[in-house]
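for the recovery benchmark. tokens below, seq after
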């Protein structure tokens, strides 16, 4: 089992995804500031993993607070939540986890005057968020695995596996693992996913460890392999899903969805309920993160582009709901009209 992030007595332990697959190194983060920095610098990435990491970071920060009264702890905790909320703007699981931790604080504050009791409840809530994510992705994988026929080759973009979640199963790769665990023969084509190469570095690494057949392709090869009939389904993860089903995911996902539509290949999105943002009517309202131009102009320390050129480095794009055959969640499979089916799942 891949352990993306975990709570320990010493601090928050997480695998450094920036240096995979060359080196499998785990970091021990000993303050909420270090956890926030790890999220921002993509030591950990993937919407569910970001949410779990943020919750653990907040629990760690609360545990280390020197406030002697609940009011003091609340002041510190509010500041920690503000810091954590500024790390990555697109992944809604971050804000979902922060709000869940705030709710846990409010409940504890109403029930006890003990600072230590409040701290213990925050640690317990962070651990519950971790456990809930593992369970949600197992359920999601089971539902999604039913949609993938035996003998299929599935194309995926970016990494939405164990590394993008609390660990174990993942979302898009959870669907693939769910199909495999149901006894189906499954192979995967993984886009490299420029510029951060999550597909070549992370997805290929995960699948190879799991002994699931995987073929790595460049991003601009996806249309060609679809035209050759080598892709039976596309499954991707999500960082935020609007009420109408419009989905933000790693840059390049929209292009893959358009190609899948052209070649009559089902395009599935896999994400837990926590990735839904029903406060947004459409994907036009989803904030799109822009990252350091060096991710485009350099490969680690090696420069690929001339000095002084203009660079745009959008980290995500939005796939319109009409290109999505189904949205696979831990509560079941949603189909059009998503405005109705997604709300039923949240309320059910």
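predicted aa per position
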């Amino acid at each position: 089992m891949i352990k993306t992030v975990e709570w320990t007595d010493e601090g928050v332990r997480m695998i450094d995804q920036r240096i995979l697959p060359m080196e499998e190194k785990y970091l021990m983060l000993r303050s909420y500031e270090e956890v926030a920095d790890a999220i921002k610098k993509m030591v950990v990435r993937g919407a569910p993993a970001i949410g779990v990491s943020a919750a653990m970071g907040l629990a760690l920060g609360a545990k280390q607070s020197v406030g002697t009264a609940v009011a003091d702890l609340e002041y510190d905790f509010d500041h920690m939540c503000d810091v954590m909320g500024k790390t990555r703007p697109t992944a809604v699981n971050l804000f979902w986890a922060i709000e869940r931790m705030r709710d846990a604080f409010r409940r504890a504050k109403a029930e006890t005057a003990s600072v230590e009791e409040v701290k213990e409840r925050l640690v317990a809530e962070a651990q519950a968020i971790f456990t809930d994510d593992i369970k949600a992705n197992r359920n999601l994988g089971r539902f999604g695995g039913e949609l993938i026929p035996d003998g299929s080759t599935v194309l995926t973009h970016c990494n939405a596996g164990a590394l993008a979640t609390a660990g174990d199963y993942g979302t898009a790769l959870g669907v693939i693992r769910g199909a495999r665990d149901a006894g189906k023969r499954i192979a995967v084509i993984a886009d490299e996913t420029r510029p951060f190469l999550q597909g070549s570095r992370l997805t290929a690494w995960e699948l190879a460890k799991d002994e699931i057949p995987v073929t790595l392709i460049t991003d601009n090869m996806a249309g060609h392999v679809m035209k050759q009939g080598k892709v039976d389904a596309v499954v991707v993860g999500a960082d935020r899903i609007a009420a109408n089903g419009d989905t933000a995911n790693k840059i390049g996902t929209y292009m893959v969805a358009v190609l899948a539509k052209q070649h009559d290949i089902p395009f599935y999105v896999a994400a837990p309920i926590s990735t839904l943002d029903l406060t947004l009517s459409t994907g036009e309202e989803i904030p799109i993160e822009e990252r350091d131009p060096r991710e485009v102009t350099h490969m680690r320390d090696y420069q690929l582009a001339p000095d002084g050129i203009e660079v745009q480095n959008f980290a995500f794009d939005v796939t319109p709901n009409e290109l999505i055959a189904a949205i696979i969640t831990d509560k079941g499979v949603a189909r059009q009209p998503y405005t109705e089916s997604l709300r039923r799942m949240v309320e059910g």
